[in-house]
Structures
1.
Amino acid sequence: MPLQAQSTRGAFETMTIHVGGATNFNRTAFHRFWQPGQGGDVTIQTPFYAGQVETGLALHQYAAATDDVPAFDAMQMHVGWSLPVTLSPRLQWQTGFRLGNYYMRFGDAVQNGHVGCDLGGIKRCGDDAATIGGDSESEFFMGLHTRLQVRMAPTWSVHTGGYLMNAYTHERIRLVYFSAGISYTVQTSDWLQAFLR
């Protein structure tokens, strides 16, 4: 049955590696200060006792949209869970949640003299001029994701999907991404299955 939970025997039997590109397409107050650039992600996923569990890493670039803020690179490190639904022998859809760390590394420092300014939710300025940049910030995030996967060969697939991320900075950052790429599935070694179980 498509919605049947994974059996104990099936847990951790395979590992699927998803590699793809990602583009941020929603627009919020955050985007008055930063414009999204290139991005990509890698996710490793395995069947669990119910659904599937995963861990992953995503990298994204954000260019400064004004002279008041520095550009920054963002790295998302996450763990997550999803429920797969088999639509046909070659087609699978899954949706689930992720949580993890959103790490931002800012570029060269800039001088900002705005009074009480809010830089898109990442940095806040006081009453005096502040130097912003050459720094980093790390925050907790939660989100939802969905993926449609088409099997092209016994171990190879292509996928497309998207994910929504809420980073809990001073002012919450909400970003929505479209992603697409390839997936490769391998059999998990016996010793690793035993360790994970």
2.
Amino acid sequence: MNVDSTSSKGKKLVNRSATDDEKQTNVLPKGIQWNFHVTSDMQLDLVEAQIIAYVYHPNKDKEEPLVSSNGIIGYRSDFDTLAPGMIINDKIMTLICRRSTWIQNNYNRGAVWYLPPSFAEDVFSGMSTFKLIDRYFRNWMEPNSNLKYIYVPIKTETGHWFLMVISLELQIKYHLDSFCRMEDIECRSTTMSILSNSLNRMVRFPYYGTTFDGRSIDFLGWPLEQAKGIPNCGHSDNAAAWLIEWIDMGECFTSNIQGELLENNIRIRTATRLLLEMYNELKTTIEVEAKENWRLINS
């Protein structure tokens, strides 16, 4: 799955993206204990290799800001959690949703809302509907009559990630989960019902009059279906990587999930996208620093 191709219909993205012919098998110089082990099958082009070498150099400042977008800052310590074997943190997940939202608002038709992980946390902390609207209306839930899907990432108390996708066209909620035991189903269904009810209350405010004009909205009452084709992994170790793959579907969502999970490739692809795309207000600065760092380590 590739957001650059599947969720950018209507306008062509101007983000830097290498063609297949430009892709090489760049690996990082030897002699340095990199914080991300790059393999040739990851197919990094030169700029991507430079960025990864800069971000995952062991001697660089862990608290250096590498991404800034609409007030959300991603530090090197956050990107360290994308390295193989690490637990991907909430900041990275928030940046993924922010990037996808930026693409929707700037290049697409506003067909998808990507709510950040904090949304579910705020709902379960008891935040009022008015405060939820104040926090999420402008940056995450922009009114748009083209809205087709709402993506809601959810993290359990044990750190397991799963996803609820609401289809407005089909009036169905979908549960995407890579590790769901029989004893988990009722609890997670209840969680999604509570979140659906909160969204129900939010979209009934006057702000969304044009978004849902003429459409019957009852997220809570719509049926919940399990997405097909997702393997039950028996653990949560790669649940975050699965979540990233599902978010990539954007408005090309399908409930029939196919494909193999290449986790480390997903991790490095996510890092390069978050760092090198136009939504990142620090993109140009980081590219310059990365190029100079590459020159020094190869001299």
3.
Amino acid sequence: MKKVLILGGTSDIGKHIVYGFGKRGYDIIVTGRDNKRLNEIKEYTIKNYNIKIQDYILDVEKFNSHEDFLNSLDDLPEITVCCFGYYEDQDEAFNKFEEALRTINVNYSGAVSLINRISKRYMEKKNGS
């Protein structure tokens, strides 16, 4: 069975990526920070597509959790889609370094940390994208 990992599946874009892969018959592993939205997406996907879907709470700012998350997966899917992001308020990010740092930690550092770990696993098994 085809399987995909969707990081940030509770974002507006991520939700539609989940539905698109579900419609095409992929089993899905979806992550997000919002448990309520994860449940809504999971319920909709199960109701409308005949696939398996697993959901995980994942906060990419918690860099030390990345390896544990990947180790918790039965098998890393052959496809990973990264669609998480953060940019709450442009003015606040300009005026408060803490807000700019959070944006960097999610959009860059978190992505690099997680995608590097996934890429390494793909290279080791010589499969995945």
4.
Amino acid sequence: MLTFEEKLRIIESFPQLKRKDVSLGRVNFSYDESILDKKNVVYHLHPNGNGYVYGAHLRFYDTDEKGYVNIRDYSEKALRTIIEKSIHFMTEKPAGEQTPEEEVNETWKNREGHTLTLVQEDEDVWNVYAGENLDNMFGTYDEAVDYLLEEGFRPFTK
């Protein structure tokens, strides 16, 4: 388990996060550029090492009723990953960032006829959508494809 100081060092390495000291020695880190009403990325990081990162949008993380993931036992890599995913989720994609020729937009179907769409949102962000709802986020195309295959989906061609 990382210490409070180690977690602080990792979190403070994200220049887009703004630190705010709160009660009982706890610290919050907000992302003021968030397009959501939610601004806190890191919530109530406590000197005992406990704390939370916003992850309501993340499918394979256990969240509390407010959408936060407990990071008490997280490694440095896991902590960096969830913070990056949280910030990305709160970030609006600038208009015109990619031309349509560069974007990947694939339709995948399963045997029951359910459809998911794989979209490259950024150079290193691949999102899977169920309709207009975000189903999951991945750092690589291969990770996204592995997920879709494991869930029983196959590429759909018209």
